Amino acid sequence: MTNKPGFNKNQNTGTTLVTHFTPTVPAGQQQSGNCFASSIAAYPRTDAWRCNINDQIFDPCFSVAQIDTVVCGADPLSGSGGFALLLKKPLPAPTPTTGTPVAWGWVLELSDGTVCAPFTGTRAQVNGKTTTYGCKPATGNANVVILGDLDAGKPLWTAQVATISFSDNQIHEDNVRTMSVTKVWQ
Predict the structure, then answer these.
(1) What are the phi and psi torsion angles at 40 (to 5°)?
(2) Comparing C-alpha atoms, which of 75, 72, 56, 58 is closest to residue 136?
(3) Under a CB-based contact definition with an 8 Å cutoff, are residues 177 and 161 in contact?
(4) 72 within 8 A of 82, measured Cβ to Cβ
(5) Share of the chain above pLDDT 90, in %
(6) Could you give the C-alpha distances from 69 to 41, 42, 89, 93, in angstroms and in order?
(7) Cβ neighbours of residue 186 under 8 Å, at least 6 residues apart?
(8) N or C: which terminal CB in the chain sees fewer CB atoms within 10 Å?
(9) Alpha carbon of residue 96 to chain centroid
(10) Which residue has better confidence, 65 or 1?
């Protein structure tokens, strides 16, 4: 993982630490497959892809210096390097983006240790608000989501976080709160 100079913010000053993630090719871990579209999870990046191995989708997978290889399954939180995906076909043309938003990430960590990643399929509506990220709480098994966009209006980003429940074929908000986003990987 590398960082762009001047891109990271100091965690100790009450700011969100933003890291530009660049994987390296892990040794020994290889599979074969294809990438069929630009990433949805890391949509502003033209070097991130949705890839398929035996009908299983990995998103994001990242381009590396080797033209016939991308890296999938990398996890900056655990330090896992993921695996090298040897491409059977060339990468598709990237989907053009119209400006990169400031407040986005393909992995985020909230102030309580909850880890979130963007939904890459249908995004549910909860009381008229769109669920944008699904989260794994640091403790417990609650269904936690982020509603709407991240707010980068201050150095310490925030998100509207909700615990949700399911009943009568509907999604219900059980607890909505504003939380700090302490770390972001873009």
Answers:
(1) -95, -40
(2) 75
(3) yes
(4) yes
(5) 69
(6) 19, 18, 10, 15
(7) 18, 19, 20, 21, 42, 44, 45, 104, 105, 106
(8) N
(9) 19
(10) 65
Which residue ranges make up each domain of the chain? Answer: 22-87, 107-185
> In whole angstroms, what is the distance from residue 28 CA to residue 68 CA?
16
Contact yes or no for 19/184 (Cβ under 8 A): yes
Q: Would you tell me how many other CB atoms lie within 10 Å of the CB of residue 167?
A: 7
- Give phi and psi for 7, each to the nearest 5: -90, -30
* Sequence letter at residue 169: N
H helices within 47-109, ranges in order?
A: none
User: What confidence score (pLDDT) does residue 22 get?
Assistant: 92
| Residue 11 φ then ψ, to 5° | -60, -30
The residues near 59 (Cβ < 8 Å, ≥ 6 apart) are 39, 40, 41, 42, 48, 49, 50, 51, 120
Question: Phi and psi at residue 20, in whole multiples of 5°?
Answer: -80, 115
Measured distance CA(105)–CA(42) in Å, rounded? 7
